[in-house]
Amino acid sequence: MVEYIEIHKIKDFPNHPFKVKDDDNMNILIKSIREYGVLVPVIVRQKDDGSYEMISVHRRKKACELLGIKKNL
């Protein structure tokens, strides 16, 4: 199921093995999202408290935050 979720409700997965870097690739992703929007949804799971936990695509969430996007996929 795909739905829009407010970004502030999405918490990072605490055991995520990779660090989100603010590098040239992030700048390319930001430019792409600014121009085309989010084309591939992030993957989350809902928690008991109503928040969501990020499973995959942490860089996309960070790029959306940097762009000031309030809702993500």
TrEMBL record:
The residues covered by the ParB-like N-terminal domain are 3-73
InterPro entries (alphabetical): Chromosome_partition/occlusion (IPR050336), ParB/Sulfiredoxin_sf (IPR036086), ParB_N (IPR003115)
Q: Which Gene3D superfamilies match?
A: Conserved hypothetical protein from pyrococcus furiosus pfu- 392566-001, ParB domain
Looking up Pfam families in the UniProt record yields: ParB_N (PF02195)
Q: Give the record's GO CC terms.
A: chromosome
A biological-process GO annotation: chromosome segregation
SUPFAM superfamilies recorded:
ParB/Sulfiredoxin
Report which superkingdom the organism of origin falls in.
Bacteria
Q: Which PANTHER family match?
A: CHROMOSOME-PARTITIONING PROTEIN PARB-RELATED
- Supply the name of the protein: ParB N-terminal domain-containing protein
Q: Which organism is it from?
A: Candidatus Merdicola faecigallinarum
